[in-house]
Design a protein that fits this description.
about 325 residues, alpha/beta, Quinone Oxidoreductase, Chain A, domain 1, Rossmann fold, 2 domains, 7-stranded mixed β-sheet, 6-stranded parallel β-sheet, 10 helices, 15 strands, about 30% strand, globular, NADP, oxidoreductase activity, acting on NAD(P)H, GroES-like_sf, Alcohol dehydrogenase, zinc-binding domain protein, NAD(P)-bd_dom_sf
Length: about 325
């Protein structure tokens, strides 16, 4: 089978050995995946301790595809089922092995390419808002609102009856989320009182959020795109009763939940109902995956980038 492996901090599409599933895993024929910034950062830093095929590291977290071989222990969907899910690595290949509690079945009306955008970005948004105790009437500030996580977070918040405020960096990006946000700010607002702040920039931006969170509010930090440390005045926290700073490392959060696919079925149902929309702005095949990764990191992708591993079926 073909797979995209990492060598010298670059991706190379070569013939690799198909995975051998454990008894609790299914063998999935991958139709589509998506590309996330975290994956690309991992490729560029290339720790080389994540080896999934004979010394090769095959990246890829999100997948949508068809069950080729069901789990030997009887769990999970039957052969031929259409599924979407996540793995820690290995999705950028024509076959993958996935635990049955890391996938859900797809309704007939959803395409593989749409579904493949959901797992990591959608679950990050879903769990971040859950950690902030999302409920109707709350004001939610979403940084990086034009990205994959941000777009999903705005829509999930609105569906719950919250007021969703998106933060973008330019007028052009303002227009890209005009139909999914209740309010839009170009740059951090000068003032405000937000019950939940989803923050992914880190550094000075995270420190500034302490002035914007409401009493009893929560800042959920799920990234550090700036790569900078955060220094803040502890007095700012004491001036806000019961302010909470909550970190979110998605895989750790998924592992500690009763079910590791918690939230994914909800996201699929929302997408099928039209309550949630995905914005696919770039689609490439395996042979062009490196160019797509570069475009994502150069901030030329406002939305989701899809990797069509079987373009005819996606």
């Amino acid at each position: 089978m073909l797979g995209a492996i990492v060598r010298d901090n670059k991706l190379h599409v070569i013939e690799v050995q198909a995975p051998a599933p454990s008894p609790s895993q299914t063998l999935v024929r991958t139709v589509a995946s998506s590309i996330n910034q975290g994956e690309v950062r991992g490729i560029r830093s290339a720790p080389h301790w994540q080896l999934s095929d004979g010394g090769h590291w095959i990246p890829g977290w999100d997948f949508a595809g068809v069950i080729e071989k069901p789990a030997a222990d009887g769990s999970g969907p039957a052969a031929g089922a259409r599924v979407v899910g996540w793995v820690r690595q290995g999705a950028w290949a024509e076959r993958l092995a996935a635990e049955t509690d890391q996938l859900v079945e797809l309704p007939a009306g959803l395409s593989f390419r749409e579904a493949a955008t959901l797992p990591i970005a959608g679950l990050t948004a879903w769990h971040a808002l859950r950690l902030g105790d999302l409920s109707a009437g709350k004001r939610v500030l979403v940084l990086g609102a034009n990205g994959g996580v941000g777009r999903f977070a705005l829509q999930i918040a609105r569906a719950a009856g919250a007021v969703a405020v998106g933060v973008v960096t330019s007028e052009a990006r303002h227009n890209s989320i005009a139909d999914i946000a209740d309010e839009i700010a170009i740059g951090l607002p000068a003032e405000g009182a937000f019950d939940i702040i989803l923050e992914c920039v880190g550094g000075a931006t995270l420190a500034q959020c302490f002035a914007l969170v409401a009493p009893y509010g929560t800042i959920v930090s799920y990234g550090n795109a700036s790569g900078e440390p955060c220094c803040f005045d502890p007095g700012a926290a004491f001036r806000k009763p019961c302010l909470r700073l909550q970190s979110l490392a998605l895989y750790d959060e998924l592992d500690r939940r009763p079910s590791r696919n918690e939230g994914l079925a909800d996201l699929v149902a929302m997408l099928a109902a039209g309550t949630l929309r995905t914005e696919i702005v770039l689609e490439v095949g395996l042979s062009d995956v490196q160019q797509a990764c570069d475009a994502l990191m150069d901030r030329r992708v406002d939305g989701k980038a899809v990797l069509a591993i079987d373009p005819a079926a996606a």
